[in-house]
Structure to design on (893 residues):
């Protein structure tokens, strides 16, 4: 009956899409092992599902060369996989782990075929963001009563500048859909992409200092649903790193040239824009470092 | 006024049926007093002449008694019954004179207050502005009422607010009336057999704009051949003849009077213009309408005014004019708009100005030979029929569809990185994957780690998070998008903002008074300086009074204001020193 269902759907029903970083190059260099990390994460997922009966969780694995859906709590085929569970493992996550294993194998296969070697060991964030947004879009179109979706990005790999355009596109789509992107960065360097994503979409960004307390961080900061965030004070970053990467070399720059037609960023003077093909005029001054169409991107305070 | 007052014995009736109370009516300038004979009766009446609206009286020849009925402005009527008719007439004349005089006075007073009225209106506008804008009111109160600035100075910088309406009104350009004033029927007086046409400058302008032949005739004939009055008389005679639709008479008169004939025959100038326009019509279908194409002004167009088909002799054909022709011509002129800005009363100037404008536009419209050729060529090109033309074989260019993968792959770009040995990397990757798979197997086997998290670690995390949140709140506030001002208590915030606007006002007047040339400016600057030092000390006091945790931010806010004031003070001191140094020792007492 629709009225009963609407009564059940209160403000704090949430759909959490978790983007799990499974980049092996990162996990081979961390202090925390992947299994410890997984136990924190799985306990956190359990907690989220326990907060509200109607909560949903979707897990997408972000690999080195590919991404895939690992787990969807709304599917009924999760339950009843008793034989593959060991002791201490919630019944819910048996299939998750199985799928994760299959995914890692597949990812390994794909990475063997990859040609380019000189790549920053980043995970495929743009791919998993796109998949998450597609899933959320499907949820939006499913009807009036749907949980409030948000994306949580658990990542430790550094940013891959070659994915800048795709990541920014996904971030703007998320902004349009009004889906907040929370990000928990457990890596060493700072991730400009994740900071920008959380800033633009209105999500929370945090870099936990103590990785063995990861579960505490996750439940304190990232478990709140969107409605309750109005009353709860969550940690905010003081500044956001707004640096972009140039389109020609994929370097991170903070001062460069911008095409006035398509707003593509270049680190050096070009005759023609490679994205939209518009021809740039003569630079007014001879000195290449002080042309008028330069744009300075300074981190905001 | 002769005959200062009139006194008569009357009976006062408040209505027709009332028998009337006998008494005395004393009419003086400005006032009318009725005193009843019986002192105990209470129908004493005093009416001011200003309040009398009208008066009526019974006629002498009728059988009615002599009554005078005065209605006042409120509608109440007072009826006075006189003893005889001459008395009544005397009173009536007196009251008429008084009423006439009363009417004059309001007119005079209206004229004299109109010059004051402007400033009254302005005062009203000022009050309205002050009422609506509380910030302005506060500034006004602070400065004008404490005599720091005068009223005029205060409003001098706000001319834009006051004068907005008047500026707007004068910028509007008045267009032409769409009513055909030139075709209004004259007033006919049946008794005297006169037809009166009214002629105003507006009508003259319309006639000249719509009928270029009349305009040309005016320029040619006046003042050489006839006076303006004669010209218009003849013109209106022609109009009258048109309106009677008597073509025979029209033909006869035209034959007699050549000037009249000019008005009676169709407008040659207009016909010429229209024929030119017809020649220039583009046969390629151009949906844009040509400006006021008035093809119907030529003969053999147009419908009859009343739908009948009169039989008209061919030679009299030209003396007919149809309503549609007039309407179309008028509409064309109105759409063109007011082409001249001459507001002169002099008809000749108007006529000449219009001719000049028409000549200029004609010169612009005339196309050169080259332009003509080009036009013809374009027309023939556009009007060509495709299936009649020879087949054209355009050279074919091969279709090139780019591989979209190029675009996406270019995004990968040349990544400048520390190059690693290819084989080494592959090995690394393989190892890493191996490690990863091991971890997964491990967790599948052992389950979640127990305990998941140690209590002391948890506690540390909590405390660090709390610290982070509270420090962030201190620095950027609860809402990163709110400004510091919102965190101040409301009274402090208002005070800060008010100080800001008042300092701006003061500084504006201060800096505009330099260089000091008159004593007026000198005193003004002195007053402004006192007000500014006052504000400065108020700012200092405010900084001290605010809470300690906000003090730093408030002082940051207040600093630019104080810096501006300091600069003004410095300038004042420097200027003062210069003046005293310049005037040297020959200073009269008391001169600063």
């Amino acid at each position: 009956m629709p009225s009963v269902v609407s009564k059940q759907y209160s403000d704090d029903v949430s759909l959490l899409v978790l983007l799990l970083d499974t980049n092996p190059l990162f996990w081979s260099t961390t202090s925390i092992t992947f299994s410890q990390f997984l136990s924190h994460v799985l306990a956190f997922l359990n907690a989220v599902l326990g907060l509200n009966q109607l909560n949903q969780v979707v897990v997408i694995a972000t690999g080195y060369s590919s991404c895939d859906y690992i787990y969807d709590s709304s599917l009924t085929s999760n339950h009843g996989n008793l034989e593959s569970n060991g002791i201490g493992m919630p019944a819910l996550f048996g299939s998750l782990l199985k799928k994760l294993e299959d995914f890692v194998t597949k990812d390994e296969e794909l990475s063997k075929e990859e040609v380019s070697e000189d790549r920053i060991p980043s995970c495929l964030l743009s791919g998993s963001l796109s998949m998450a947004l597609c899933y959320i879009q499907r949820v939006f179109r499913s009807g009036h009563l749907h949980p409030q979706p948000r994306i949580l990005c658990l990542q430790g790999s550094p940013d891959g500048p070659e994915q800048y355009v795709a990541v920014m596109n996904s971030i703007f789509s998320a902004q349009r859909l009004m889906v907040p992107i929370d990000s928990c960065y457990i890596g060493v360097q700072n991730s400009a992409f994740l900071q920008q994503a959380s800033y633009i979409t209105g999500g929370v960004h945090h870099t936990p200092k103590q990785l063995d307390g990861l579960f505490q961080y996750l439940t304190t900061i990232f478990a709140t649903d969107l409605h309750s965030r109005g009353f709860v004070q969550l940690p905010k970053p003081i500044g956001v790193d707004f640096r972009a990467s140039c389109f020609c070399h994929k370097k991170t720059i903070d001062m460069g040239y911008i095409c006035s037609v398509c707003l593509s960023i270049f680190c050096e003077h070009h005759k023609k824009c490679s994205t939209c093909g518009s021809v740039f005029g003569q630079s007014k001054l001879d000195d290449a470092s002080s042309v008028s169409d330069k744009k300075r991107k300074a981190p905001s305070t | 006024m002769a005959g200062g007052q009139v006194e008569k014995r009357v009976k006062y009736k408040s209505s027709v049926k009332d028998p009337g109370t006998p008494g005395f009516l004393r009419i003086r300038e400005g006032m009318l007093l009725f005193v009843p004979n019986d002192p105990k009766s209470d129908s004493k009446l005093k009416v001011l002449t200003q309040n009398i609206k009208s008066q009526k009286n019974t006629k002498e020849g009728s059988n009615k008694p002599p009554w005078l009925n005065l209605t006042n402005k409120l509608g109440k009527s007072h009826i006075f019954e006189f003893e005889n008719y001459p008395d009544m007439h005397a009173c009536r004349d007196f009251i008429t004179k008084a009423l006439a005089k009363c009417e004059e006075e309001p007119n005079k007073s209206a004229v004299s207050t109109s010059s004051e009225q402007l400033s009254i209106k302005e005062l009203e506008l000022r009050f309205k502005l002050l009422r609506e804008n509380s910030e302005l009111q506060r500034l006004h109160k602070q400065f004008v009422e404490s005599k720091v600035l005068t009223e005029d100075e205060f409003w001098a910088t706000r001319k834009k607010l006051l004068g907005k309406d008047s500026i707007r009104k004068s910028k509007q350009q008045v267009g032409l009336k769409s009513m055909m004033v030139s075709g209004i029927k004259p007033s006919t007086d049946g008794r005297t057999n006169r037809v009166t046409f009214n002629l105003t400058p507006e009508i003259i302008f319309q006639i000249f704009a719509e009928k270029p032949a009349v305009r040309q005739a005016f320029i040619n004939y006046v003042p050489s051949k006839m006076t303006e009055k004669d010209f218009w008389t003849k013109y209106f005679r022609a109009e009258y003849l048109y309106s009677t639709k008597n073509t025979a008479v029209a033909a006869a008169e035209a034959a007699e009077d050549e000037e009249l004939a000019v008005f009676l025959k169709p407008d040659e100038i207009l016909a010429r213009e229209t024929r030119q326009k017809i020649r220039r019509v583009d046969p390629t279908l151009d949906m844009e309408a040509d400006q006021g194409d008035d093809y119907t002004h030529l003969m053999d167009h147009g419908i009859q005014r009343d739908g009948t088909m009169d039989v008209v002799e061919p030679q009299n054909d030209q003396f007919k004019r149809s309503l549609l022709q007039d309407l179309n011509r008028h509409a064309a002129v109105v759409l063109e708009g007011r082409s001249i800005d001459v507001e002169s009363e002099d008809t000749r100037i108007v006529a000449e100005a219009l001719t000049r404008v028409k000549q200029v536009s004609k010169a612009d419209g005339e196309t050169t030979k080259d332009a003509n050729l080009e036009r013809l060529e374009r027309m023939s090109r556009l009007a060509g029929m495709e299936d009649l033309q020879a087949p054209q074989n355009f050279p074919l260019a091969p279709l090139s569809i780019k591989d979209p993968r190029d675009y996406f792959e270019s995004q990968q770009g040349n990544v400048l990185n520390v190059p690693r040995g290819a084989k080494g990397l592959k090995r690394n990757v393989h190892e890493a994957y191996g490690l990863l798979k091991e971890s997964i197997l491990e967790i599948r086997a052992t389950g979640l780690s127990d305990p998941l998290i140690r209590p002391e670690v948890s506690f540390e995390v909590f405390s660090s998070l709390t610290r982070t949140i509270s420090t962030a709140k201190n620095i950027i506030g609860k809402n990163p998008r709110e400004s510091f001002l919102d965190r101040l208590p409301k009274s402090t915030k208002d005070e800060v903002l008010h100080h800001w606007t008042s300092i701006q006002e003061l500084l504006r007047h201060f800096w505009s008074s330099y260089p000091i040339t008159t004593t007026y400016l000198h005193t003004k600057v002195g007053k402004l300086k006192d007000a500014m030092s006052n504000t400065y000390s108020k700012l200092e006091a405010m900084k001290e009074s605010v809470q300690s945790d906000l003090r730093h931010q408030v002082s940051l806010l207040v600093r630019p204001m104080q810096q501006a004031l300091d600069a003004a003070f410095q300038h004042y001191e420097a200027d003062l020193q210069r003046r005293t140094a310049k005037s040297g020792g020959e200073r009269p007492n008391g001169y600063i």
